[in-house]
Amino acid sequence: MTPYERPLDRDASSAGAAGTGKGQAVLVVDDDPTVSDVVRRYLERAGYEVTLAGDGPAALAAFSRRRPDLVVLDLMLPGIDGLEVCRRLRTRADGVPIVMLTALGEEADRVLGLQLGADDYVTKPFSPRELVLRVQSVLRRTLTRPAPAPETLVDGGLRLDTARRIASLDGIELSLTVREFDLLVFLMRHPGRAFKRGELLDAVWGWTFGDQSTVTVHVRRLREKIERDAAAPQRILTVWGVGYRYERVTAAGGS
Question: The Response regulatory domain covers which part of the protein (predicted)?
């Protein structure tokens, strides 16, 4: 019996009991048939329509045939690995959320996956019930997030057009992931205020639980893209023992 079969029997009466999926489509990409089958059954019981893919090329083909509402993506895949699949999906559709499946020892790959734009991750071996809850949480915050009022945020040479979701520095467009852009918008809207990592997880990711190192990774990536010297940041500052705050490099209303 695998680690995934035992939780299925124990949790079957409670996982997804509310049937909250409402026909939303989920693409599950994993080369382990046992994992795929358990995840499929849990998600279908929660009301989701599930498509399975066993490798990278099959995942990309399935995505092309029908754009899902969410992708559950294992990082260790034959053919094309999960990181490359994630990168390719992000070039096709930034708005489709991705939940990664990673092994305990794959911290570097997990960090890279978050940098490429994955929205959440679950570490193997995992409880299928937890995975369903993560899927529900990611979809809920994705589908219910209100569209922000169009505005342009400017700080010196840094400029964010929230309507078109374009960021530029000194006139050069920046390549930001969805979460990097959202985090930067949030920080720039609240200059001078220190936020705990948990507060940023809640405000930007919509997570009431989760690994707070996600915030650290995204802050580091933002610094590499918007700071003159990422090792001595001027905009996104660390508040030791708390989290981060954004400091304008120009006075409000300055250029």
Answer: 25-139
Could you tell me where in the chain the CATH 3.40.50.2300 domains are found? 5-144
Is the CATH number of domain 5-144 3.40.190.10? no
Cite the beta strand spans of the chain per DSSP E. Answer: 25-29, 49-53, 70-74, 98-103, 120-124, 152-155, 158-161, 166-169, 172-173, 194-196, 236-239, 243-246
Are the beta carbons of 195 and 159 closer than 8 angstroms? no
β partners of residue 70: 26
The class level of CATH for 152-246 reads mainly alpha
Residues 149 and 163 sit within 8 Å (Cβ to Cβ): no
Q: Where in the chain is the domain with CATH 1.10.10.10?
A: 152-246
Q: pTM surpassing 0.85?
A: no
Residue 103 pLDDT > 90: no
